Amino acid sequence: MSERDILEEIRNSIVMGHLDAEDEGFDGSMEGTPGTVELVEQALEAETDPQQILTVFNAAMDEVGRLFEAGEYLLPDMLASAECVGEAMDVLEPHLAGTADTQKGTFLIATVKGDLHDIGKNIVITMLKGAGYQVRDLGIDVPADEIVAAVKEHKPQYLGLSALLTTTMTEMETVIRQLKEAGITDVKVIIGGAPTSEEFARKIGADGHCRDALEAVEKLEALRSAS
Ligand code: B1M
Asked: Could you read off the pLDDT of 162-208 as tens digits, one per residue?
């Protein structure tokens, strides 16, 4: 199978919620055929660039979002596709991970209060670990005061905030305000997630916005060399 074909198969398999060969997928007919996990393993065996596989995860979840918006997919369908990406990330992570370089500093990240989306955050974590940062994941649905307490405790150089909902992105502003109120000015805050933008980052006083995980690495490198 060509590289293009296998990447296309991974994309389809995520969209169809086909986790692995034991799973039947949304249409009930896929049991016994390679699912997302086996296809990612095959792609890695064929020496496909892991970054390229990550790009396919993004594309597949965009399609799932489109189908959900069109009313063709329900919540459990989105969850099944999300599970495919989660398991596939576990297979991919060792191929992306690097060794922590203590010189590079600590990066703390959370999905803000009210928001349960973590696929993007987890990709950012994998990429930053791969780039040598020490990463601490605070998880999902994390209230602003817990984030501020974690910053006080761990004293990271960088804080990442993720939000996928227009209703939760406003929590990022709360976090930045509470950091200021606590007198914490030495942590650089960068944000990301589909509804956020460069303009929004400026408005709430963040130090940067990242469109994707690659840009998160670039932004941290830029902030590091500027400091
Ligand atoms: Co939800 N959901 N969802 N969902 N979901 C969206 C976001 C939505 C756009 C779908 C749609 O309608 N088209 C829509 C939001 C609409 C809006 O706010 N305008 C939506 C909705 C409405 C909802 C619910 C409200 C549905 C309901 O209950 N009726 C509900 C809310 C739950 C909650 O959070 N309280 C809900 C629930 C869920 C699931 C739990 C089923 C599941 C999440 C499972 C999980 O994450 N473990 C889910 C999913 C899977 C999606 C979509 C389909 C996919 C998200 C995703 O994983 N994308 C999504 C549609 C879409 O995004 N196209 C959708 C792939 C991922 C790699 O990209 O997360 O953007 P992304 O991350 C990127 C960048 O944004 C950036 O880098 C990442 C990697 O490149 N980035 C950062 C992200 N965070 C960063 C942080 C950084 C830096 C970069 O820090 C430095």
From this structure: 999 999 999 999 999 999 999 999 999 999 999 999 999 999 999 99
Residue 17, ligand 1, Cβ within 6 A: no
Number of domains in the chain: 2
Q: How far is the CA of 101 from the centre of ligand 1 (A)?
A: 31
Strand partners, 134: 106
CB hemisphere CA count around 74 (13 angstroms):
2
CATH code of the domain covering residue 202? 3.40.50.280
In this structure, is residue 64 part of a structural domain? yes
Residue 161 lies in a domain: yes
**Which CATH number covers residue 44?**
1.10.1240.10
pLDDT of residue 131: 86
Distance CA 121, CA 89 (A): 12
Q: Whose CA is nearest to atom 27 of ligand 1?
A: 75
CA distance 172 to 191: 8
For the Cβ of 120 lying below 6 angstroms from any atom of ligand 1, the answer is yes
Domain residue limits at 41: 3-96
- Torsion angle of alpha carbons 172, 208, 195, 105, nearest 10°? -70
Report pTM: 0.92
> Whose alpha carbon is nearest atom 13 of ligand 1?
65
Q: Is any atom of ligand 1 closer than 6 Å to the C-beta of 68?
A: yes
Asked whether residue 101 is assigned to any structural domain, the reply reads: no
Low-confidence ranges of the chain (pLDDT < 70): 97
Output the CA 106–ligand 1 centroid distance in Å: 25
